[in-house]
Structure prediction request, 168 residues.
Amino acid sequence: MTLMTRIAHDVQLMLRRPPRQQYAAICYRKRKKQQDIEVLLVTSRDTGRWVIPKGWPMQGKKSHAVAEREAWEEAGVKGKAEREPFGTFRYPKGMDSGLKITCQVQVHLLEVKDMSKDFPEKASRRLEWVNCEEAAARVQEPELKVLFHKLQQIAKNDGLGSGKPLNS
Prediction:
């Protein structure tokens, strides 16, 4: 890729509508013997930092469907994401050229029903189930930390016995 092609590509990314929107899933499961939940963290492919599955909009797919797809591709997770967003966070996305753009990420809760041992990005990511407090400590984005604390509070208050979605 020539320098001019790279610059043109980066400018195109910055000007695209929506240029900086991503969709993500906080994948969670109920712990069997406790009234608590665990959330799934994955490592990013570039820096290895702890993140949640997220990606760019996909033509013809609603935001919660994109979140489901990213959870499958990045973590082998199967489940239904809630249609209503749980929250948002921002982070600086590093591009191949070194340019950083701010991305707004709309987050959907996804209760994990099943996991596959084989999934598209298995070789390039690590996965780990942790409690919400540990997840908040591991991620770098302040607003994502807040979402993990919010989820922990909701899970405690709901008791998880109601059978209703956590986001209601």
Notes: The mean pLDDT is 88.
